Amino acid sequence: MRDVQLVSEQPFGEGGLLTRLHLLSNGLKVLLLRDPSAPVFAYQTWFSVGSRDEKKGKTGIAHLFEHLMFNETQNLPHGEFDRRFELAGGNTNAATWVDWTYYQDDLPASELALAVQLESERMQNLLVREHQVETERGVVISERQLRVDDDVDGFMSEELFRLAYTTHPYHAPTIGWMEDIKNLSLDDCVNFYKTYYAPNNATVVVVGDIDEQATLELIVKHYGGIAAQDIPKSVLPVEPLQTEQRLIRFRKPVLTDKLLIGYKAPALLDPDHLRLEVLAELLMGGSSSPIYRDLVIEKEIFSSLGGSVTPFRDPGLWEIAASLHRGHGADEGLALLDEHIARVVAEGPTVEQVERARARMLTSFYMSLKTAHGRASSLGESQTTLGDYRELWRVPQILRSITVADLHGVAQRYLSAAQRSIVIAEPSGEAEDEGDEGDDDDDLDGAEA
User: Fold this and answer.
1) pLDDT, tens digit, for every residue of 323-335?
2) Are residues 275 and 359 in the same domain?
């Protein structure tokens, strides 16, 4: 086909499916995966822009613009975008995070033309005017108040990254600092759209019951005429090596102490990232894991405990979030956690622990790929964050090869108190809701519209 070339193809697992990456002449990348097992498809557009690309004083613009993308275009009045998807039996949403912004549509197989038409329309013909910016600014301000200013967990997460990063833009929250949100101008938004919402900064991912050739032809027809833009080269400062523990305390309206720890962790493409994920799962991934079993189930020091490694393009954090039971303070909880951490650093895990954690991680990986939506999300994030969708299949390869020595090694490399930041929330005496003491469900995903 004219104006498009096949760049690569890769088997999708072992079921006979094939992922193909195509490139249009204007730089748009198109990932297609045909799976006729159900008469549905997922259509996602991933833009390689997130809060890491924002300038000082302009934080939150990537997230604000995600909201603006659901407004009117040259050919669609306000509300028409969502209305057409709903009438077709589909749903649509979006999310912004540090390394990306993406838009997702899930529809019956018969509605492919609708998705291509509407998504290409808002990529090139969005109307960005003063009243729209002001309306969405108000929505984002309310969202920030709800999710950060009036939410202890959201506040602590923001403070952890502010504390852990002194130079790298991961320091700033994706939702933006309140002062910056209030000061973003119409010109800021127009320039952001013209710069980053370009075909050569995007990947369209289509997974499901599709005809690949017909899909590609539709995409070329609707996107092929959109002009490429000059995308600024993202040269970010390297975060200096952290050499001593950082700790900050806050008095907040909670009934019991809360603890949030961030150990410096490797970037997503580093094999150590997945090894550290396995170690986190091994140590506190459920009722059979040693730290969770000891401190939540047996000793009942913590009411909740969990950890995850941020899947960032640049080095991130291994976050550990915990809530204490009444009568137990954050310092006591931290000391008990440190005993377990010191043990794994000194001795490493057992073979049995590694096997259990590996099995849980492999199960989780394949379960995330059961649906068209899950497959599209995994492919799109790998292409956008790592630069190649085929990196997705490194995950089971690394998981199957991990040894006790590998996990002992990452424990020794990363679980040092000198490389961690800690945020503690202590009761201020103003808590009103007993629900504050319940289990936490920490949202580590992107900010959604």
Assistant:
1) 999 999 999 999 9
2) yes
